[in-house]
Amino acid sequence: MRDRGYGSKLFLALGALAGIALLAAACGDDDSGGSGGVKYGTAGFTSITIDSGASVKIGISSPTSGDLKAIGQPIVDAAQLAAEGKDIKGHKIEWVVKDDLCSADGGAAAATQILQEKVVASIGPVCSGAVVAAEPQYEKAGVTQISPSSTAHKSTYPDRGAVFQTFLRTTYSDDIQGPVQATFAKDKLGAKTAYIVYDTDAYGSGLRDAFRTAFEKGGGKIVGSPEGYEKKATDFKSIVTNIQNAKPDLVYFAGFFAEATPFIKQLRAANKDVKFFAGDGVKNDEFTKGAGADAEGAYLSLPSPAYTGAGYLTFGTAYEAKTKAKRDASPFVAESYDAATIIINALNKVATDSGGKLTIDLKKLNDEIRKTTLDGASGKIKFDARGENAGGATPVTLFKITGGKYVETPR
Amino acid sequence: MPTLFLAPTSFWVDQFVNGLTTGSLYALIALGYTMVYGVLQMINFAHGEVFMVGSFAGLGAMTLMGGNDLSGPMIALAILVALIAAMAASAALSATLERVAYRPLRTAPRLAPLISAIGASIFLQYFVSDRTQGKAKFYPDVFPRGTVGAGAFHIEYIQLFLIASSIVMMLFLYLVIQRTRTGRAIRAVAENQANASLMGVDVDRTIVTVFVLGAAMAGVAGVLHGLFFQTIRGTMGFLPGIKAFTAAVLGGIGSIPGAVAGGYVLGLAETVGREGLNTIPGVDLGNQWRDVIAFSLLVLVLIVRPTGIFGEKVARRA
Q1: Fewer Cβ atoms within 10 Å of its own Cβ: the N or the C terminal residue of chain A?
Q2: How far lies B60's CA from each of A183, B57, B72, B138, B140, in Å?
Q3: Contacts of A293 (CB under 8 A, 6+ apart)
């Protein structure tokens, strides 16, 4: 029949088109090879020359204002501490610190500003939302970034498929934190059902997925639908009513302390008994200060090994002397110190000096950083092909808030 | 959330109360928008910041009175002082704005005061954010917790207090507008500025009064917001400001009963409305959708009934 003939031709044409598109997509990301089964995209590695007398610039992208300054500033301070008394073959180290507000837009804007300054490497972004937005820019410029704190799965498994060669982290993925949290919730807290509240950014939604998958795999049940909120939200009343209706054993909060504070107050006003469990974004002294008595009994986890090494003690003492702040007031400071140390060490290895002029090959720098193994302030660090820290054996620590303090609790 | 088919009555009652609570705040703020629009046909986009400054003034007053150490009847006194301080601060700010940012532009094209208002709004947001290092501040956690009610119906003390004080304020405003000389002057100026002036009404003074009255309502809303949600910050006025503006348009901008109705409709749409939509199989709108629902409602109203629920006035003018 005429109709059918036409139809099948159309079908064939569409099929062919789809085939070509798929082929193109498969090839598109494959141009730069990779290692260990990881596919990299193309990074725009160049080399940067530093005139004699000029300083070597390293970027930092971090929230240094607003609610999350309490997370961002300590990370900046720790990185800068690592550079004290150090230089790159006689050249001073200059920090280019840009405020990324912990947001996607801010991360992209800070990346533009940092890259304009011809930095050779960068620390951060601190927040996964900013990382995901900024990765393409660093990749294009060939500038290696080490995030001390971005834990999202998406940071190392980007949507485009090909891994960003220029992204590494000294912290651990939520792929590790999520399952540990799920097991802890089920076995230690006896939770059979959980209700999820999450920040809609890359960090919150990533942690939501990591926890949900692991919790359900372990036989737990997520009750109700996970409820999202945007940063700076204060009205959680409607969510609390849904929680009351769903009657979970545990409320899992994937977000930051700035919203966890009003949330837990509103939750506790209606429900004193349900267990509260959150990730690293909430573990901050600002949370215990802001939520006061309502924070009592809350459980939190950090994707870092218990800091016990000699490196941490040395770092902690120096950090407290410099900043007058407690070393464990906010997480990821040791990871930031290590990230800066790794960058500075690698720079000293790859920078070539000719008559006072430094030349830094960004590809060589990237290779050198990837090869690094460090027994640092935050524990053992080495990177796998994907840019993950593969150094630690049990890189998750759990805490219970007792008497207004974070008390470590066995996992 | 299909499980909500099975949700008990108490769930819907709770969401209804949540809607009334948010709605009360929207309604209180919306009054300021609608009154200013009524007399000047101008949208005072800095009104959300008037609300924010009221909230900070209330926090300051409560902190001075003892903050978290307050107890017993002192709590009630501190809240009263906070409300008065907030009304005063908001009123002073709003009167200043009128004098500095709007009055010089009263005869300018209609876009000019609007832009001036947006400028004032941004200035105030960032000024306060800067002064507070962009951090959230917390109201003292002193309001007694607990619920009152019977059977499926129960309501938290703080929600009851919030809804009740909003209604008292709105009734007070209604009486001022309908039963006093000042109110009559306001209605006259809203009707026709030139004629009112000829009848011996001091137009400038009346306009300031309108700003002050609207600001007082916003100041009360600021303290209630602080007591209820406890977290306040320099940028807190923006979203409630836009929502209250939406409420005013929903109700019919320029109409006082309209602003109140619009506020409650919006508050209920965000809570009961969202959960209602979630009972439809396959629909799962998380809390992050509440703004989408609110603004979709605005678009819908503007298409179907551009004058809003109570607004015939605008149509007649236009």
Answers
A1: N
A2: 45, 5, 20, 11, 10
A3: B141
* Residues with Cβ within 8 Å of residue A371, at least 6 apart in sequence: none
Instruction: Please identify every stretch of chain A with a pLDDT value under 70, giving residue numbers as ranges.
Output: 1-36
Query: From the list B68, B156, B278, which residue is nearest A269 (CB)?
Result: B156
> Quick count: other Cβ atoms within 10 Å of Cβ B56?
24
A65 contact B CB<8A: yes
Cβ A238–B11 below 8 Å, yes or no?
no
Pick among B51, B283, B287, B292 to test the A interface (most A CBs inside 10 A): B287
Q: What φ, ψ does residue A402 adopt, rounded to 5°?
A: -130, 125
Report the residue from A238, A266, A292 with minimal CB separation from B271.
A238
CA B1 from centroid of its chain's CA atoms:
31
Tokens of B112: 């000019």
| Torsion A369-A395-A278-A67 (CA) sign | negative
How many angstroms separate the Cα of A118 from the Cα of each of A124, A289, B306? Answer: 16, 40, 54
**pLDDT tens per residue, range B243-297:** 999 999 999 988 899 999 999 999 999 999 999 998 888 888 888 899 999 999 9
CA-nearest of A118, A112, A3 to A58 is A118
Q: Could you tell me the two tokens for A271?
A: 């429900």
CB neighbour class for B168 (10 Å; exposed up to 12, middle 13-18, buried from 19):
exposed
| Residue reference for tokens 């230089």 | A87
Q: How confident is the model at residue B135 (pLDDT cuts 50, 70, 90)?
A: confident
Asked if residue A225 lies in contact with residue A232, where contact means CB atoms within 8 angstroms, the answer is no
Cross-chain CB nearest to A229 (options B4, B233, B288): B288
Average pLDDT score, chain B:
91
Structure tokens at A144: 């290696």
| Confidence check: pLDDT of B48 > 90 | yes
Tokens of A7: 């139809």
C-alpha dihedral, A397 to A398 to A401 to A403, nearest 10°? -70
Concatenated DSSP letters for A104-171? HHHHHHHHHHHHHTT-SEEE--SSHHHHHHHHHHHHHHT-EEEESS---HHHHS-TTSSBPTTEEESS
Which residues of A are less than 8 Å from B15 in CB distance? 238, 241
Rounded to 10 degrees, the C-alpha dihedral B101/B107/B112/B113 comes to 40
Fill in the DSSP letter of residue B61: H
Task: Please provide the DSSP assignment of B140-194 as one string.
Answer: -S-SPP-EEEETTEEEEHHHHHHHHHHHHHHHHHHHHHHHSHHHHHHHHHHH-HH
- Model pLDDT, residue A307: 86
**Cβ within 8 Å, pair A65-B133:** yes
Cα–Cα dist B89/B170, whole Å: 19
B47/B102 Cα distance (integer angstroms): 13
Bridge partner residues of B156 (DSSP): B147
Place of tokens 């009064």: B209
What pLDDT does A36 receive?
60
Q: Structure pTM?
A: 0.88
**Chain B positions in Cβ-Cβ contact with residue A70 (cut-off 8 Å):** 135
Our CA-based measurement puts residue B311 at a distance from the nearest CA of chain A, in whole angstroms, of 30
CA distance between the termini of chain A = 69
Asked if omega into A136 is within 30° of 0 (cis), the reply is: no
If one compares A32 and B205, the residue with the highest pLDDT of the two is: B205
CA distance B275 to B287: 10
**Residue from B249, B206, B250, B232 nearest B59 by CA:** B232
